[in-house]
């Protein structure tokens, strides 16, 4: 039996997706601020501190602690609860903040815990705890792309996260390892070991344009990857908008290509 609210859903669209949550009477879905799109009559919304789960404790202190954890991951102090106060089923719809995919995660089937990148959480059934996961290793925290803190989703209900571009799901066996660009990680299950590894070779590090470090994920567990991290998209847009910056690749030779083809002046 699930302790969290049991909700139904449908996902619409291809690259600009939205998710429709169907609520029975008195069911609630918790959503990130700014993700709301539209809802049926009979659903009422309430802005609250924290995630509304029992993990944040009771009373003012517990709520402040829950809200404080969200600040550490760069989120707002508040979340919005959408509750069906009517007598029939009602629907509320949420949309991702940029082009990409919405991923449904059934925490009951994923061991009750999933770790995901900051800013990826979209919405979840009431009762799902949205907390923080500290990276214990100094190197992982300093060079892992996501810093020392990632988001942690716990419970036995449905949660929805948003990723940029296309999403790939990888199942890693015990001892199996995957080297990944740090920005391409969306989420992984609790059994995955997360570490970083420096790129080998001076030429690769200086001229490769892929950064100095890989994220190294080792099984057993499940990993979700995104093809277009929002940081990469934003960087490309900024490079096109800067004076003389039509094509700024990751390596130091990127600007030389602009000069040679006449676009660097």
Q: How would you portray this structure in words?
A:
There is one protein chain. The protein is of the alpha+beta class and 265 residues long. The protein has a single domain (8-234), classed as Double-stranded beta-helix. It is 17% helix and 41% strand. The chain has five helices and 19 strands. The protein has helices at 59-72, 138-143, 202-207, 230-241, 254-260; strands spanning 8-12, 18-23, 28-32, 36-39, 43-49, 78-84, 90-95, 100-106, 113-116, 121-125, 129-134, 149-154, 158-164, 167-172, 177-180, 185-189, 193-198, 213-218, 221-226. The strands form four sheets. Strands 5-6-3-10-13-8 form a six-stranded antiparallel sheet. A hairpin with a 5-residue loop joins β1 (8-12) and β2 (18-23). The longest helix has 14 residues, at 59-72. The protein starts with 7 loop residues before the first strand and ends in a 5-residue tail after the last helix. The model is unreliable at 138-148, 201-209, 247-253 and 256-265 (pLDDT under 50).
Biggest sheet, spatial arrangement of strands = 5-6-3-10-13-8
Mean pLDDT across all amino acids: 79
Beta strand %:
35-45%
Rg from C-alpha positions?
A: 20 Å
Structural class per helix/strand content?
Answer: alpha+beta
Task: Give the CATH level 1 class.
Answer: Alpha Beta
Question: Helical stretch count?
Answer: 5
Q: Name the helix and strand elements from N-terminus to C-terminus, one letter apiece.
A: EEEEEHEEEEEEHEEEEEEHEEHH
Distance between the termini: 65 Å
